[in-house]
Amino acid sequence: MESKKINKGTIVIEVSVISPEKFLNLLWNKNIKVSKIKKIDMTTIRFEISYEDYEEVINLAHNLKGKCRVVSSKGLIFILEKLKRQASIIVGILVFCVGLYILSTHIWSVEINTKQNIPPYEIRKILTSLGVKPGIKKSDVDVYSLERELEGKNKDILWIRTRIEGSTLKVVLEEKVTPPNIQKESNEGDCVAKMDGEIKRIYASSGTAKVSPGDIVKEGDVLISATQGLEGKEEFPAEAKGTVIANTFYEKEMEILLKGKKIESTGRKDKDIYLNFWGNKIYLKKTVNNFKYYDKIKDDNGFVNKVTYFERSDKEVDLDRDTEIKKGTEKLKKSLIKTLSNEAKISDENISVEDLGNGKIRLKVIFIVEQSII
Question: Is residue 362 predicted with pLDDT exceeding 80?
């Protein structure tokens, strides 16, 4: 039954034979239904037949040494045949578009830019341990969380920035460089202060100490001279070598909003998705951006492009002064530690607070750092 429904259709054909009337009688004798008969000329007739009778009509015409031409056709069977011929093209286009979209939603390369001390392999190894490698979905990568993870796993990173550009994850970082402990070679010169400070301890293993604990020194002052001998008597050249530990001073500050309104992220986001054909945008998804305040990040380096909107909103804050001063001091302390050598240690801190009005304060902290100054 289903096959009969599918095979339903009609064909209008022209047949050229010596005797059109004889040909029509032959069709009727074969119980072939013929309709809309029209005589074109003395030897040619045009008529309509069922699709199921087409093969038999053609064979009968050939037996009479006639010629046949299909003028038109209609019906489900012809639509299906046309779709069948074009199916491979349609499927190919669909597979290409779907494949292209899927490829554009993944990261296929990781580009790492470092300086001298941290090899890219080390960062790539950390990324792999976190599951970030070519083939991962872009939606599975939170660049801000990734930055924090990398900083936590490698203490030599001063700051880091990760961004997704097209199908590439780009990682750029700045390294924390520990100043080398420079030792003067024999007869090269004096040991001088590399920064201002208050001398706490001094030990000259070679040469002559020129300062004492409690002395205030400036950058460039001689701490251990490259000479040896008793004062007032003959002195002779010697290697200036030793250890000088001093209290050094670092000042850092920040502004803190204690009471009032501030704009911060709500965690809500929305995005536009579109195809870019030579500057013409075809939107696959067009959002209605109802966010009053928002950050916008564009990803327009591929075939399928995105614009992501991150909502930000006003938030009323009323914070405890002492708690925020403590938090701010700790934050400034952590930022300072990143710039210090591994041997340095913070021994004390002096805190001052200035009221700026409108619920704001300026926090200033002078950190006293005990470290080598040669």
Answer: yes
